[in-house]
Structure formats: C-alpha cells, structure tokens
Specification:
- By secondary structure, the chain is an alpha+beta fold.
- 44% of the residues lie in helices and 17% in strands.
- It has 33 helices and 33 strands.
- The chain has a 9-stranded antiparallel sheet.
- Helix 10 crosses helix 12 (492-503) and helix 17 (651-660) runs parallel beside helix 23.
- The protein is elongated, with a radius of gyration of 36 Å.
- The two termini are 68 Å apart.
Amino acid sequence: MCVGLRQQDEIVPHQPGYGVKGRTPPSCCGWSRCCGMGDFRPRTVWLGHPEKREQRYPRNVINNQKYNFFTFLPGVLFNQFKYFFNLYFLLLACSQFVNELRLGALYTYWVPLGFVLIITIVREAVEEVRCFLRDKEVNSQIYSKLSTRGTVKVKSSSIQVGDLIIVEKNQRVPADMIFLRTSEKNGSCFLRTDQLDGETDWKLRLPVSCTQRLPTAADLLQIRSYVYAEEPNIDIHNFIGTFTREDGDPPVNESLSIENTLWASTVIASGTHLYITYSRGSRPQIGLFDLEVNCLTKILFGALVVVSLVMVALQHFAGRWYLQIFRFLLLFSNIVPISLRVNLDMGKMVFSWMIRKDSKIPGTVVRASTIPEQLGRISYLLTDKTGTLTQNEMVFRRLHLGTVAYGMDSMDEVQSHVFSAYTQPSHDLPTSRAPAATKVRKTISSRVHEAVKAIALVHNVTPVYESNGVTDQAEAEQHYEDTCRVYQASSPDEVSLVQWTESVGLTLVGRDQSSMQLRTPSGQILNFTILQIFPFTYESKRMGIIVRDETTGEITFYMKGADVVMAGIVQYNDWLEEECGNMAREGLRVLVVAKKSLTEEQYQDFEARYVQAKLSVHDRSLKVATVIESLEMEMELLCLTGVEDQLQADVRPTLEILRNAGIKVWMLTGDKLETATCTAKNAHLVTRNQDIHVFRPVTTRGEAHLELNAFRRKHDCALVISGDSLEVCLKFYEYEFMELACQCPAVVCCRCAPTQKAQIVRLLQERTGKLTCAVGEEPHNHQTAEGEGKQASLAADFSVSQFKHLGRLLMVHGRNSYKRSAALSQFVIHRSLCISTMQAVFSSVFYFASVPLYQGFLIIGYSTIYTMFPVFSLVLDKDVKSEVAMLYPELYKDLLKGRPLSFKTFLIWVLISIYQGSIIMYGALLLFESEFVHIVAISFTSLILTELLMVALTVQTWHWLMIVAELLSLACYIASLVFLHEFIDVYFIATLSFVWKVTAITLVSCLPLYILKYLRRRFSPPSYSKLTS
C-alpha cells in the first residue's frame, strides 16, 4: 500500500528516453509554466485525501507524443520548413504563382515538394500513432485504490496526489510513491529500477514503520497523517521527507529517505504493497554524416547561385536581369536535390530494421533510427566493467584472516571450523594436545567462526520461499525449506556471500524489518534483532548493521566495505593493504569485514543522536553521516572476502576485433586499480606484449606535471589511472593529458565516478572530434548511447543484450549503413547534377535563354517513378559478405578516414555528372534531325538509360530486389511513353533512327566509366575486392 506524492506528468526527466513501453518524459504541456506547474515546490500530502492538496497538480498521464490532433500538421510543417533547404524549395514552388517567374506547369515544382512532405507526414503520423497506442496502454492500466467505499479499481491516468494505491507483485509502479504497508511477513519489498537507471538488481524498500504496524490497511483512512516531501528533482538516488501522524499520543514523527520511496516505472518483486502517490516530477539527433551531407548541399547551393549569375553575366545583364537571375535559380534548382533528405531518412529506417531483424544479434533495440550510419565510424569505445565485460554473477573465491587464507580447495576446513564452533563446547576439546597447540587451534577456529558469522549478518539479503510443486509457500516458510529458498538482494556480491556462508554451514533462513534468523550446522536457529541498518551508497562505499544476539543479549556493530574507506576505520594492522592488493591482482573484488561490540549505554546514546539527525530536513545527509562516523572508529578487523565476476562469453575475441578495426577501447570502472588491471589483462584489453603504465597517485599540480612527463617518455603502452589522479590531471593539464591518453592503445580508469565517465566522453569528443561510443549498463553522455552517469539506461541509442554483439553491430551493420548512405547520397546528387548539366548546355546553346528543357511530367517522373527505385535499392548493396567483414575487421579501419563520403569522392561524382550530362545533351543536339521534340526524346531516353546503367555500375553485390527495381523502372518509362505524346513524338521513338542514336549516346556516356572502373579494379583494387576475389 502506498500514497502518491508526485504524478507522471510532473516527472523531472531522469534522462532522455525513459519508462515502460516507450514511456519517455512527458511533453512540456504536462508541466509547463503556462499550466501553472513550472515551479517545483516542497509539498504536504494528506493520506487518502487528495482534495486537501494545497496546489494544483497535473494528471497522472504519460504523454510521449510530440503533437496533438490540432498541432500535428502545423507542427510537422514548421519542423520541415525551419531548415533552409526545405524553405528554399517552398519559396521556389510559391514563385510559380508569379507570371514573370513561371517556367511551366505549377505541378512541376509542387508535386516533388508535396511528395517529400507526404512521405515525412506519413512517417511522423505512424510514429505519433505508435506513441499514442503505447501511452494509451500504459495510462489505461488498472490499479486498486483504497477509499472510504473499500477497494475500487482506477486507471493509472486517474490516480491523484494523495491517493492510497495497492500495487501487486510484478506490477509497475504508476507514479512516484511513499511505501506505507506490505503483505510480506518480513516487512519489506524489493523492486527493480531497470527503467530508470538500467540496473537489473533488486533494491530493498522499507515501509513507514508507523503505518506498517496498523492492524489493517483500512485503518490508514482513519488516522490523521500527512507526508512532507521535498520538491521534485532529477536525483533518483536520494530523497528527503517526513511522515507525521497528528492523532497519535504523542504525535508520531518519522523521517523518510530513499528506502521508503518507489519511483514510477519500477517493478515490484513480490507481495501486495500499499503506497501513497508522490510523483516525480525528444531530442532529435543529428549525426556526423548528416552534417557532412548538409555541407555538400551548401556547396551545391553555392554552385547554383554561381551558375545562375554566370548565365546572366553572359547575357551582359541585359534588360530585367534581376528577374533572369530568379528564373535561372528556378531552372537550375535541380542542382540541390529535393529528394536527398527523404532518401537518406528512408534508408536509415531500412538500416534500423535490418539491425532489429538480424538473428545473430537477438534482442538488439534501435532507439535512435536517425543515426545507424554513425556505427560505421566509431573511433573510441568506452566500456564499463561490471555487467558489460563481466557477467555480474559473483562466485566466492577467497577468505583471508590475515595469518591464514582459504581458497576454493580449502573450504572444507572453514566448514569444519564452523561446525566445531557450534557443536563442540570448549571443554570437549582433546586434552591430549599440547596447551599451546590447543590455544592456537581454538583461536583460528573462533576467528573463522566470527568472520563467517559477520558475513552472514552484514548484508541486505532477504530469503524468500516459493512453492516448488511439492511444498506450498506457507509450509516452506515455516520449516525453512532449503529447496524452496531464493535470495533477493540489491547486489549479486551480497547474494554470493550469503550463499557461501550457507555452503559452510551458517544459513540465512529468515529476515524481516526488525530481525534475522540464522541456522547453524546442527539445525539450531539463532535469532538476531536488527537495531539499525546503514545501507551501501556510492559515496560511503560501505554498509553497516547493528544487531542484538537474542541468546546472549550482546549488541554488535558489523561493517563491510571497500578497503580504501575501511583502512581508516579498523584498528592498526600490517597486512590489510598488502593482502587487498594481492587479491585484487587475481581479479577478485575485495571487501573488508569488521566489527565492534557496543554496551547498552553506548547504543542508547548513539540511537538518540541518530534519530535526531534523521528528523532534520536541512543538511540531513551530513548530520546522519557525522553521527554514524562517531561509531566507525577502532573497529576490529575480522577478514577479507574475495569474489570473482566472470567475463561474458566471447569478450576476448570481440575486443580483439575492435582493436584490429582501429577502435581504441577505454575501460571505466569503479573497481580497485589492481582488480581493473587484472580484468583488462584477462579480457585481453591489454595484449600480452604491451607495457602497462600505472599512473602514480597525484594530488598536486607539481606531482601531476612530473607524472605526465614520465608518461610522455613511454611509447605504445596502455595507461592505468585512478579517478582521483584523473581529476587532478583534468583540473590542471586537461589538454596535455587528453593528448597523451588518446595516443594509448588502451586506457583503464579505475575508482571512476559516474560523473567522471560522462566528463571523459565529452572531452574525447571535444578534443579529437571523433565519434565515441559508450557501452555499459549505465551509458554515458555520447553519440551512440547518450545519457549521463547512473541515470542513463534508456538514453541509449542502441541496446545489445551481450557485449559480443557489438562486434557484428559495428563491423557489419555500422560499416554497411555508412557505405550505403554514402553511395545513396552521392547517387542522388549525381542524378540531379546530370539533368542540371543538360539544362545548362541547352540554355547556353540557345543564347542563354531561361527556357526549361523538360517540362511537366518528364521532370517529375525523372526523380520519382523512372529512377527512384533503382537508386534507393542501393541501400541493399554490400561490398563483402558479413562473415568476411567479421573475419577482417581491418576493413572497418578504412571507414574511419571518412573516405566513402569526402570532398574527393564528391568532386569525382560532380565530374562524372558534368561529363554524362554534356555528352547526352551535345549528342542529342548533334544527332537530331528537324524537330525540337526529337531532342527531348533522344536526350531524355538516354538520360534514363544512363541512370539505370550507372546504378548497375555502382552495385557491388546484386540483390533480386535491385534487378526488379531496374526492370520495373524501365517498364514504367516504356509504358508511360504512350501518355507523353505532349512532350515526345511517339512515332519517332518507334523508328530505328531513334534506337541507334539513343544507344550511341548512352554508350559514349557510360562505356568510358565502365572501362575506368575495370582498370582501377585491375591495377589499384580497393582492400575489400582482394578479399571477395
């Protein structure tokens, strides 16, 4: 049971692209200032009384649509015409209403523009309908609401701030809520926040203890209570609030933290829970390829203006020359191809579809269908370690007590020590032994027992019992059935530790909010009361628990954490640092476990100060941390634990593929330097013969300067640097550090904070100008999986289920998408330049007259039904098979220089267009006999055949759809000749004279290019042709 505080439309976007079933942050209409919702303020929410709200809140609806019914058409048109080139074509079309500027039929200009707009509108409409249906499905989900009339069913969209909502197992939380009650016996629940931060681990949430103690859920409506909550913000990892019950005697005041909240779109693990709704609070992507194409179209526009001015200048600016300039701008408008943008957009949709449908990379999701060709030009790949290179499935490997260590092969010794600790009283020890030996054995045995007991208690793991078909759930819980037990925890590390204590004889069999039960090897149940829990945070890097042993009454404070923080908390010792380093070098994740015994008076004093600190609204975190730190002194070091996170399948070959493809891989992790270095070697991120330069810890500018100079003298070595040193280097020597780091074949950043990860991505892109791809359970701010820090899961542009799929995604799909996009864009430009060159030749021959060569349907048909399908079929072309692309990743390296679409290739295609356009036009002028319509017939037919032959010349691997497209286009042209008698002499085209003239012109325009292509492949073949032959 929970009470709602904030509604969906108030959700502060945690990251671009968020939520279940396509939920993204609501559009601005949800919480804009015009609705009076712009200012986020703290709020007081009365339980079960939405009418008592002190301010107006938006409806609890998800709305991902960019437009509504009335704004759709104006919005789409505005978004199209805000770009210069679309506006330019609109102005051209409008100019045809002016008689002095009209060059032919109105539809000559309006139909191509309308065609492009219709395709865009249809595409946007399909997207909007999909969004609407997804939103409707989410907003119509039914939830149970507790009211004075009992339990009533409500739609998600009808939930208000202050409502009491019941959420069942596996339901998604409909709005941001405070956790009030649960049906679970252990008084807690687990939820998954994968839709918010990409983390699939279960997280523990606790109900407000005052409301959990009420006899029934209906009593929530009988009490006078309210929740005070901080203002909505983007931080999903912290929350400050208080719960107050006014009718209590005395009034109850409880502090609320992140543990008492359930954010919208999280998933409940089990049980029925009651909450109060509290409510928490698209970017268009333009890729590098699009920017390059825009640059080329600007050059073409410049050429258009120059050609128009030259034509008027050759007329010596006679008469109304300014009108002539406009007429020539209209006449040569084909130089800038209107269909370029729509062809590329449709091509990207095809590439995205191909990625989704590839059976060799199942589960791949394309969220940014506007940038698939970016995958073909990645220079830097930044990856997380945990859950990305590794499986995030932990296996316990080592227990170290300082004087003795136990590995996997000696766990039976640990088991016997634990067994003896619980089955043999101290007086039963063999008396025949020497006293010294007995003492040593007893010491080791008790130390092992203390360590195992501590590991079994200091965690946030909850055992859950499920029916296994033979035993039902209630019976399994009652008898602690081992076969029915599963562990739920927020971290796989914790589960592996608890599973290990079970394997050596001390089993966690029960847990609720206030107690824990352990079962000894002899079957005895040990009861512990949980007095306080201090959960793990990224900042503190440790977790603690205070428990009371019900048998002895002893109060003990247990703590485990990273060695960097625990070193200053435990009593002095001479082995901690050395052994942590040794275990980390083996690739193990190390935790330090310590304890401190407390007297009743010490605990009571601590509790009073702790409760006071938790109730403060201002600087709560700081005050609470200060109180806890007063306990964290001179703790007794018990042991070190080492767990191993195993590598994912095929990580090594994938990293080798990426390295051979010229992609530099950086690993960013929060782990220890030694652990990170070991994983880098293990995964072959650093090759065996490569040197590793470990950047020494630096804290000052001078130290950083000296260390950078030492690093500068190294060549071709991998860099390993810690987050603290990185921060110092970036503060004082940002440019120098990035310059040196970019030259390294591999970089490992350890002890790296999420904010630093985002900063590194940003700096890489700024400094190098190269494309960067960040991969991980929490992608960072970049081009191919955009987001920032811990809150970036659904910001990813592409999602792959396994790291090994990256190889195929980049080597095959990325490479093909980029090469195809380059070929398509250049061919569309060639198609437009050919006809423009012919127009220029025609005008210059006829005394620079601004008269169109082709009119009406000919000009429209040329760029649509006659050539559209063959040109677009280039999106199916490929130079090598996917197996070859994977086998020779060096082919990918060629693309990093941007050669498929460069000024050089652009110039080559411009020259080809000018040559072919001139040959066709001059050939038609030379060979025509008497009538002008013969020129049109000969030149236009030659032009269509040339385009179809040029597509055939460009294609490297034929697909059956390409052949269909070529034949279909030719058939369309031949069939349409019957209806084109207005422009073409139908009787003339049936003569032998027409056929030989068209054949001759087409051969002269295409044959030299075929010969050049053959000679080039013979004497200077591209790298891929060597592999295909």
